[in-house]
Design goal:
The protein is mostly beta strands. The protein is about 15% helix and about 35% strand.
């Protein structure tokens, strides 16, 4: 169970870790399971007199921090549920984040990590590594705020263990092929599992990820609506266009045109992301795409060729924690 330790008058939201979930059997059409509603608690800066720093201790693998009427500062200490184990932490600030600046505590100084006007896209996920099993964030309220105007500095966070918990983060670790054990686990417990082919890959350097568009012929599971019917595929919004380079916008337009050819063919279309350092490329054939939701993004974790997956289901059915389909 997720635990929140509070000191002083601070109260911050926390989201319990997702329990291990078995995949519903015999899913032949996209299955959308509504995720549990996170318990949201807020900290009110009006309780502070403009001085002092409130310490907050969080031992959740994921959650949300929301600070209303920011005053003075908060020191948010993130710790792994597994005491002393190293982790990689990522945060994503709200689109309407205001009234404060977010820093990461370094060995000797504070490192700027998020501010509404820092010149980087607000939807950019900012990541950092723990030190001796924890990471500390300093949330500093801006000076001269209007005491009557409600401002909210909110962000979501997610922690992932690094290797065996004692290793140093290696960026290419997220790019290696999955082991058979990892594939079996993700098939039964992943947030999305689908069979399909790659339509397009678009690099997003400003967001530090690659966007992969997939045409799925079968969706085994999805806890969020990652894949939808091809004829109902959403167009890009104005926010997407504002953060795109001319080259990316041209590639997206080509991709949108390719969706029209899928309407008659049927099936489903979805977009997932991978870290840009993985160098994702288009490839022929069918794949089983599996992954997790992190900070509102569907992150691709495993994508074995379908022939490889079919062979694995025949020899590993007795080892799996759910019924394997191919």
């Amino acid at each position: 169970m997720c635990r929140l330790t509070r000191r002083g008058t601070s109260t911050l939201p926390a989201q319990p870790s997702q329990p291990f979930r078995r995949r519903p059997y015999g899913s032949l059409t996209p299955l959308y399971l509504a995720p549990p509603s996170p318990a949201t608690r807020s900290y009110g800066g009006l309780k502070q007199d403009g001085r002092g720093i409130q310490p907050v201790y969080l031992t959740c693998t994921s959650g949300r921090v929301e600070w209303q009427y920011p005053r003075a500062g908060l020191r948010v200490i993130l710790r792994s549920p597994h005491k002393g184990k190293e982790f990689r932490a990522c945060i994503k600030g709200d689109q309407k984040f205001e009234g404060a600046r977010l820093y990461l505590e370094g060995h000797r100084s504070l490192l700027p990590i998020f501010h509404a006007d820092d010149g980087r896209p607000k939807e950019l996920v900012r990541c950092f590594s723990s030190y001796k099993g924890e990471a500390a964030l300093y949330v500093e309220a801006e000076q001269g705020l209007d005491g009557l105007k409600k401002q909210v500095a909110g962000f979501d966070y997610h922690l992932r263990p690094v290797g065996d918990g004692n290793a140093v983060y290696e960026p290419m670790e997220e790019c290696r092929p999955c082991t058979e054990t990892e594939m079996l686990h993700l098939y039964c417990a992943g947030d999305f599992v689908a069979r399909g082919s790659i339509l397009a890959v678009t690099d997003k350097p400003h967001l530090e990820h690659s966007l992969i568009t997939i045409h799925a012929t079968k969706v085994f599971q999805q806890t969020y609506p990652v894949f939808g019917h091809a004829h109902a595929h959403p167009k890009r919004g104005s926010t997407d266009k504002q953060t795109q380079t001319p080259k990316e916008e041209e590639e997206e337009e080509d991709n949108d045109l390719s969706f029209s050819s899928l309407i008659e063919a049927g099936g489903y279309v979805g977009r997932v992301v991978m870290p840009i350092q993985c160098g994702a490329k288009w490839g022929e054939g069918e794949f089983l795409v599996m992954g997790d939701m992190r900070l509102g993004q569907p992150v691709l974790r495993c994508a074995p060729r379908y022939e490889e997956w079919s062979a694995l289901t025949r020899r590993a059915q007795s080892q799996a924690q759910c019924i394997l389909e191919s």
